[in-house]
Amino acid sequence: MLAGRMTVASPFAGARVLVVDDDPHIREVMRFALERAGFAVTEAADGRAALGACARERPAVVVLDIMMPEMDGADVCRALRAPAAATAYVPIIFVSSRDDEVDRVVGLELGGDDYLGKPFSPRELVARVRALLRRATALAAAAAGAGGAPSSAAPPAPRMLRCGPLCLDLDGWRAFWDDREVVLTATEFGILRTLAGFPGKVFTRAELMDGAYDEPNIVVSDRTIDSHLRRVRRKLADAAAGAADPIQTVHGVGYQLRTGGS
Question: Does domain 16-136 have CATH number 3.40.50.1820?
């Protein structure tokens, strides 16, 4: 028996993801990462082809480039989100080389569920697709009323992880400092979830990466994890409005989370 971490089959194996981008190289990268994670992938090189693909085979998730010739991602999203469309509730991840706050807000207001700036990590794309599928599955189960219960039945309460003023919605993949939301990428959320699960415990960089990614045997450089942590620290500092940095560096070992309530 080979040593190493056991690989657990994904509950979303075989789920179809539609990848829409006019750049064939980017489509190839996304296809490779998604198929390696067990998804079925359909490609479209422009907006009109994307609408045709959605009509033929309803995808579980659409990964949609914004900047495309003729029919851009915004027009595709409007068509998919039309009230009578069968795709009105299909999760959409926008991808774009424009990654400032205005573009992210516009993409989400158009009806997108998530936004990923180029260049992006293929592993992060896979993690975001899985997160959206988890949310969609939970919402569908709640709407079905857990085996035929009336639609007015209350959905199950989300699983929350609290550590002082920090609160993580484990089902919705959302983070809050007091009542202020901290917008994190999937990788950043995974790192913070690992730290918050055992406040005060010192985690090595490798342990934090294991908590952030579902795929086994990932090799990530120290610079990569340090870069993720810098972004998490900056976002927490903005939300905490002057509170002490809750993520502490233990030199030569790793990182730990300490808040006023831990």
Answer: no
